[in-house]
Write a structure and sequence with these properties.
Multihaem_cyt_sf; 24 helices; 3-stranded antiparallel beta sheet; 7% strand
Length: 1454
């Protein structure tokens, strides 16, 4: 039924309602049935239902008592929140108003009345809801109470507090007030909505925050959810930001904070922007001096800002005339009338710098008070004070920082000064108007006690005397009369700043003077406390107390005294009891006995004449001492211009010169300077000419020699000293100046060095003429008299500078030009050594001594023997430093003379070689040879005669150069260089070895002196075994002195007799080598033995090769020429080689080398099938194989070998050869898929009967050819046993027997009625028998224990001329009397094709009947024709079966 009336329905609607009412009543008993009509909620009442204004039900409008209009929506789902799910179907019309528990889905929410009956007159009092989430879990007003109309403190408080106090609400409401409009700052403004309280329907969803970004609450804002509530935070809100960026621009991401809603403290000033640490703009500088924010922002403090202008979207600056206040982010401005920015010297204001920028103190202190570089205003005494080290503004003005801040009270309008400044605080005043003084400043205090001293008036200056008074008053030197001040300032050029940094006498005590300490440079107690006069304890370590070169010395306590002599700062001579001065090069000049020599050191005054007295060497003279300048004067120094203090370089002084009459000076540069660490040797001054043509290691003068009339620059030092390694040799001529025993040292107690005179005094005696600069001395003499007896008799008298005019002959004879005269032969054995043997003097007299040069020991007063090179190891009977004139001795143990002892001075006339040992000449002419000791029979003689004379008769004489390098001259390299004699091995000894006649690697001979044996020579070990490469002979390492070495035949000593395989086993050498005598142990022509060649003289091919042997095994002289291995199966030497000769070139004749001859039915191949037939590979003792088809004559079987091979899979000559890919071991059938033969791997060539017991046919092709995994024509499998042998009708109802004995009439086995099919049927020229026990089909029955007896293995016809010839030879059996039991029918003559092919014998299908072939087949190009088996049908052999019957039976029999 409808319960209300809508406009427009009228009476018709009412009538319809009544009708429907009747229907409903009639069907009341069917209430649970499915509804007959599609009723909707608004068919009965509006959605949401109307609320009755009278409290009574209004049937006309459908309104009833309640507050549905403000609670429900337009769908039934909104009703279900309170009434449950049943109200969404018509079934709820049961007269009961149901209110469910857990209202609005909130656990524990309930309606006070539960369910109740629906009546037209509702009760006067309805229920209330409690704990329901849409009313914030509060007890609601009674249902149907007047609707809440406008939001207010009362209406909002119905559910929650109108003035919330949770979390940060209080903080915000304190700032913005509690009006409802304030809520809209963060939440939706419900006061502007048509239904302002409709937001209660959002229960269960998060509270809406409309500004910024708020994260949190996790839907748990109800009181009961406090335990699980997550309180969030705001971000990106202007009200929680710094207002603008740190540069005065718009806010950026880093300028926002994210305060936690639950944290009341997060609303403090410094959570959004900083307070005392605020760094944007110029806040930091202002807050540092005054932390009161209210100075610029009205009503603001360091901890709060409660004014309405806070967070109002504007930058509010109330004071100072700031020109950029207003909208945030519009940049920074400046103040124009702020009291803190005013002139310090008057009342006028000063425009401030732009906010955020700093002009420093100079922004206000300008004009007359502009700041100085020291950071102080240019007024009063500021500059003097700030110039002091450690001075700071805050020492007089609290909190002031130079160039940064004037202190906390700086901007208060007065000048506040500490240290009891009279008149402080002082009103601002113009510069220069001062009257005040400091009375307690530490910088103005008594320097000798703790009491302060009143300072001068600010801006005035009274000098040092204002503090240094009384006993410490300044003296005439400008120094206080305390300690050692007067002594120091009394020195020329000395100032206060030498000890006190920055101090100026009478003006300033230095930059650190006012720090209450006494600061002294390089003073041990500095800085020290002020102290009474006379109480000192420190010492100095400064430059004025040094050794003059920066090395500090110990000073006395301040106020004490220095020693009277030099030792206080730097050492002096030994007379002072101190060491000599150790700085620089002083020691090198004054205390250098190791170089200068004892008693030769220099005195101080020789270089410092203006400072030190030459007489005393200690007394200081003049006023230049301690002036920081090194005076350089004196006899040796030559003047201060010769020394540069800054570089320490001495120059132009005689001490460091070449020593010539016109000296060349050496500048002491680099590490040689005064402060350098170089130590000079003799060539530090002379021997160092820049453009010299030679270098003097010992320092001998090496200036250019100019030998002219004046002799001023004559110089022969190079000739005398070039080979010297130190200065001791200089004493040879300057014995009174140079130490002859110690290198780089002058002679002790000699004043000759540096005396400007060149003394010449010979160590070995003699005289020197200054006038013509010539000398007569032992150095230039003939050393001793004739025959080595007596003293020198001839002198050369050379002039100094006459270089190049002397030769060996100028003093003694020229040993390289001696003649065979009595006079020259009296000079010992020199002629035999220096002329005949071309030996250098150095061989006996040591390195450096030659015909054109002399060594270091030359002319030293003795005859020096120092054996070198070939003379090394020689023993001489006299001392090696032998005095001249004592005669001659003997040489022994020398390499030159081997084991002999030779007398010096004895001459021989034998031929050159035989002076020391035997020769080829002595061996050939007298059959003798002697060793170097002269013995003809010693072990060292050995078999020289046998080799050199060829007396063994095994070869021509062996020349010396086969074992030794024959010297072109006596002194050639390798000759006479020690024992044993050097063996160098010639071409025969090193000739490549032979193994099996094949030339191998060159031999590398070796001689073992200990055992006197030769190893690995071609002569004795060059013939090697092919099996292991070792020498064949039993004496391959002969002993040199074994006279019986070649006893007996001798042949087996060097090679086996006969030689090893592949050589023949025959000992009949002459049969192949005609230079061997018939005895086979001697030679007809021994020149052909041991000549590096294998001399073979056989010419007939059959002389070496044969297919048989004619030798009796007991006859060692018989040469077995039988070819080995499988040759007998593959070839026949007698068939091919008869009459063939090497000399005729027959072995390369293609007319036979690729030919095939048949023997016993099998092919025998010419040599060219397997071997290369060319002169380069023949007779090289290697069995060469060549199976390459491209190397054969066209059309031969060899061309059918597989192209590219490989043809040999393994090869060991004489023992193993395995071939592959060769036609003769293939299936003979070209595959249709590979277009190749199927090649088989052969048995090993040397295998013994490898096919015994196997099916020989199956080794190359199948048996039949397409069986056993070997590819062949499929037709072969159909041509076995007989015609249709396993499927022949017996004429009744079965098949006849497949096989049976003779007389059985079976399909196979009875030769009277059936012919056996085998290879002989079609290849009758190769196979003539029909039995084939090894055949793939035959062997299934014909076995030893089988049903049929063995018949025999198929054999190749002994007269065959066609097997393995490269062709498929089809030759049909003749006559072709093929018998077949496969009779077709009776009346065979009725079928023409059968009748013309077969003849019927003995009827049809009887035991003795059969059909006999009438015609012989023909085969052309792979096609068979006129074959009875196929009823005369032409057949292609390669046709693949099985064939259909119609292939042969062209029509069924009639």
């Amino acid at each position: 039924m409808k319960s209300y009336r809508r406009h427009g329905y009228g009476n018709l609607r009412t009538i319809l309602a009544l009708v429907l009412f009747g229907v409903v009543m009639f069907t009341a008993s069917l209430a649970l049935a499915a509804p007959q009509y599609d009723l909707k909620c608004d068919d009965c009442h509006t959605m949401p239902p109307l609320d009755s204004l009278t409290g009574q039900r209004d049937p006309e409008s459908g309104a009833f008592r309640g507050n549905h209009q403000t609670h429900a929506g337009g769908t039934a789902d909104s009703c279900a929140k309170c009434h449950g799910a049943q109200v969404t179907s018509t079934g709820h019309r049961d007269g009961v108003i149901q209110v469910q528990q857990n209202l609005n889905g909130h656990p524990g929410a309930s309606y006070s009345r539960g369910f109740f009956n629906q009546t037209s007159v509702p009760p006067a009092t309805l229920g209330t809801c409690s704990n329901v989430n849409c009313h914030f879990e509060t007890a609601t007003p009674e249902w149907a109470s007047p609707v809440l109309d406008q939001p207010s403190g009362t209406s909002c408080g119905t559910c929650h507090k109108a003035v919330p106090d949770s979390y940060a609400h209080t903080k915000h409401l304190e700032l913005y007030g509690s009006e409802l409009s304030v809520c809209a700052k963060c939440h939706t403004d419900h006061t502007q909505e048509a239904k302002p309280f409709q937001h209660a329907t959002s229960a269960g969803r998060n509270i809406m925050v409309t500004v910024g970004s708020y994260a949190g609450s996790n839907f748990a804002y109800l009181p009961s959810q406090s335990a699980t509530r997550v309180v969030g935070s705001c971000s990106n809100l202007y009200c929680h930001s710094s207002g603008q960026s740190t540069t005065g621009g718009p806010l950026t991401a880093g300028d926002y904070t994210s305060p936690a809603w639950s944290d009341q403290a997060s609303g403090a000033c410094n959570t959004c922007h900083k307070t005392s640490a605020l760094s944007s703009g110029s806040h930091a500088r202002h807050l540092a001096s005054n932390s009161d924010c209210g100075a610029c922002h009205a009503s603001a403090s360091a901890t709060s800002y409660s004014a309405s202008t806070h967070v109002d979207g504007s930058i509010d600056v109330a004071l100072g005339g700031y020109d950029k206040a207003g909208t945030p982010g519009n940049g920074y401005g400046s103040c124009s009338n702020a009291s803190c920015h005013a002139s310090p010297y008057g009342t006028q204001s000063t425009p401030s710098p732009q906010w955020g920028q700093s002009a420093g103190c100079g922004a206000c202190h300008n004009n007359a008070g502009t700041f100085l570089a020291s950071g102080a205003p240019d007024t009063g005494s500021h500059g003097k004070h700030m110039a002091l080290a450690g001075s700071a503004c805050n020492q007089c003005h609290d909190g002031a920082v130079k160039n940064a801040s004037g202190g906390l009270t700086h901007a208060n309008g007065t000048v506040e000064v500490a240290n009891d400044y009279s008149g402080s605080p002082v009103q601002k005043h113009a510069p220069g108007t001062y009257t005040g003084t400091c009375s307690s400043a530490s910088c103005h205090a008594d320097p000798y006690g703790p009491l302060p001293i009143q300072s001068p008036v600010w801006g005035n200056n009274s000098g040092c005397a204002s503090c240094h008074r009384g006993a410490g008053a300044f003296t005439a030197t400008g120094a206080p009369a305390t300690g050692s001040h007067d002594k120091h300032l009394g020195l020329p050029g000395t100032g206060c700043d030498a000890c006190h940094a920055g101090a100026v006498s009478g003006v300033s005590g230095g930059l650190s003077h006012a720090n209450t300490k006494v600061d002294v440079s390089n003073y041990s107690l500095s800085p020290l406390e002020k102290h009474p006069i006379g109480t000192y304890g420190g010492t100095c370590s400064n430059s004025c107390h040094s050794n003059g070169n920066g090395q500090q010395t110990a000073t006395p306590v301040w106020g004490g005294s220095m020693p009277e002599n030099c030792s206080g700062c730097h050492g002096g001579p030994a007379g002072l009891g101190t060491v000599a001065i150790s700085t620089g090069k002083h020691s090198a000049h004054m205390d250098n006995d190791t170089t200068m020599g004892r008693g030769n050191n220099l005195m101080c005054a020789e270089c410092h004449a203006k400072t030190v007295s030459l007489a005393s060497n200690t007394a200081i003279t003049g006023t230049v001492h301690s002036n920081s300048f090194k005076d350089y004067s004196g006899v040796k120094a030559g003047g201060s211009a010769n020394y540069v203090t800054s570089s320490g370089i001495c120059s132009n002084v005689y001490c460091h010169s070449s020593g010539q009459a016109t000296p060349v000076f050496a500048s002491m540069t680099g590490s040689k300077n005064w402060r350098g660490d170089a130590k000079l040797s003799c060539n530090g001054c002379h021997g160092r000419t820049a453009d010299a043509t030679w270098t003097s290691a010992a320092g001998a003068p090496n200036y250019a020699n100019k030998y002219d009339g004046t002799l001023k620059t004559a110089n022969s030092h190079e000739k005398h000293t070039a080979s010297m390694t130190d200065s001791t040799g200089c004493a040879n001529c300057h014995n009174s100046t140079v130490d002859s025993g110690v290198a780089a040292k002058m002679r002790d107690y000699s004043s000759n060095h540096l005396n400007r005179v060149r003394e010449v005094e010979f160590k070995v005696g003699g005289s020197y003429s200054e006038a013509d600069k010539s000398c007569a001395t032992y150095c230039h003499s003939n050393v001793q008299g004739a025959s080595g007896n007596g003293q020198a008799t001839v002198f050369g008298n050379p002039a100094w500078g006459a270089n190049g005019t002397l030769s060996c002959g100028s003093c003694h004879s020229n040993m390289a030009a001696l003649q065979e005269t009595e006079a020259d032969l009296n000079l010992g054995s020199h002629k035999r050594h220096t002329v005949d043997s071309v030996y250098s003097c150095s061989v006996c007299h040591g390195a450096g001594n030659t015909a054109s040069s002399t060594g270091t020991s030359h002319a030293n007063g003795t005859i020096n023997l120092a054996f070198t090179e070939k003379g090394a190891g020689t023993t001489y009977s006299q001392p090696l430093e032998n005095a001249p004139g004592e005669g001659y001795g003997t040489c022994s143990t020398s390499a030159c003379h081997g084991r002999a002892t030779r007398n010096w001075g004895v001459s021989t006339t034998l031929p050159t070689c035989e002076k020391c040992h035997g020769s080829a000449n002595s061996a050939l002419t007298s059959a003798t040879f002697k060793d170097t000791a002269g013995s003809p029979a010693s072990p060292y003689v050995g078999t020289h005669v046998s080799h050199l004379a060829g007396t063994h008769n095994y070869s021509n004489p062996i020349t010396c150069d086969q074992c030794h390098a024959v010297p072109a001259t006596v002194d050639a390299a390798g000759h006479m260089d020690g024992l044993p004699a050097t063996l160098t091995w010639g071409s025969t000894a090193t000739h490549p070895s032979y193994a099996g006649g094949v030339e191998g690697a060159a031999m590398v001979p070796e001689y073992v002196p200990a055992t006197r044996t030769c190893n690995n020579t071609y002569c004795h070990a060059g013939i090697r075994k092919t099996s292991d490469g070792t020498a064949q002979g039993t004496g391959s390492s002969p002993s040199w002195n074994d006279p019986a070495y070649l006893g007996g035949t001798g042949c087996a000593k060097c090679h086996m007799n006969p030689p090893a395989y592949p050589h023949s086993a025959s000992t009949n050498c002459s049969a192949c080598h005609n230079h061997v005598a018939q005895s086979n142990v001697a030679f007809v022509d021994k020149s052909k033995h041991l000549n590096g060649k294998v001399e073979v003289t056989v010419d007939d091919c059959l002389g070496c090769h044969s297919s048989v042997t004619a030798c009796n095994p007991s006859d060692p002289t018989c040469i077995n020429k039988e070819l080995i291995g499988a040759h007998k199966f593959h070839t026949d030497a007698e068939l091919f080689l008869a009459g063939k000769k090497l000399s005729a070139g027959d072995f390369i004749d293609t007319s036979w080398i690729y030919g095939i001859e048949y023997k016993d039915g099998f092919p025998k191949y010419g040599c060219g099938f397997c071997h290369p037939m060319d002169s380069g590979t023949h007779k090289n003792a290697t069995v060469e194989l060549d199976l390459d088809p491209s190397h054969s004559l066209a059309g031969t079987v060899k061309t059918k070998n597989k192209a590219g091979g490989p043809w040999v899979t393994s090869y060991t000559m004489g023992s193993s050869v395995v071939c592959s890919n060769v036609y003769c071991h293939s299936n003979g059938f070209v595959s249709e898929t590979t277009q190749q033969y199927q090649f088989q791997t052969t048995p090993d060539w040397y295998a013994v009967d490898p096919w015994a017991g196997v099916d020989k046919c199956a080794q190359c092709h199948g048996n039949s050819p397409n069986t056993g995994g070997k590819e062949g024509s499929a037709a072969h499998a159909r041509h076995v046993v007989g015609n249709h042998y396993n499927d022949i009708f017996d004429g009744y109802s079965a098949r006849i027997a497949v096989a049976g004995a003779p007389g059985s009439g079976a399909a196979h086995g009875d030769p009277a009625t059936s012919t056996t099919f085998n290879c002989n049927l079609c290849h009758n020229a190769t196979v003539a028998v029909s039995y084939n026990d090894k055949g793939s089909v035959c062997s299934s029955c014909h076995v030893t224990a089988g049903s049929a007896p063995l018949k025999g293995n198929m054999q190749v016809l002994a007269t065959s001329q066609s097997h393995i010839n490269g062709d498929v030879d089809v030759v049909f059996m003749s006559p072709f009397n093929v018998k077949s039991k496969a009779q077709l029918r009776m009346g065979v003559e009725a079928v023409q094709s059968v009748y013309t092919s077969w003849t019927r014998v003995n009827g049809y299908k009887t035991a003795t009947s059969y059909d006999l072939a009438r015609s012989t087949p023909s085969y052309v190009g792979g096609t068979c024709s006129t074959v009875a088996c196929h009823n005369g049908t032409q057949m292609e052999w390669r046709t693949k079966g099985p064939l259909a019957c119609a292939a042969c039976h062209t029509g069924l029999p009639q």
